[in-house]
Amino acid sequence: MAERIEYLLEKYWAGESSLEEEKELKGLLNTSDQFSVEKEFFEEVGLLKDEEPARLKKPAYRSFGPEWLKMAAVFALFMAVTAIVFQYQKYQERKEEALAYAQVMEAFTLINDHMLKGTNKLEAMEEFRHLKTAQEIFELRQD
After folding, report:
1. What's the whole-model pTM score?
2. Which residues have C-beta within 8 Å of that of residue 12, sequence separation ≥ 6?
3. Which residues form the domain of 37?
């Protein structure tokens, strides 16, 4: 019987025993005169098992502060995120405005270049400005 108790104790301390083996070990320890330390251990475990949960102290809930402080922190976080979003939107608008301005200026430059080309070609016609009719150009006179 002592050998069986020692075998079951080894399995129990190694964490390899089943529930049936633990029940057998407790029964054998109750009938044996040896193993007083182990008997006392299992008796104490039995007493702890029967103890009422109401007598056990529950850990206290630790709050981070009063309720108004939590609400103020959430509100401040919300305001900060809102401000960041608005600043980003303003930045995007300014970026789009700058792009539109650059495109308009490019279009004006293109129009100006084409107008200068057209004006240069018309300078050749400037000499004929004082002539009023085709006869005067070719000096055709009919008498």
Report:
1. 0.36
2. 21, 22, 25
3. 2-52
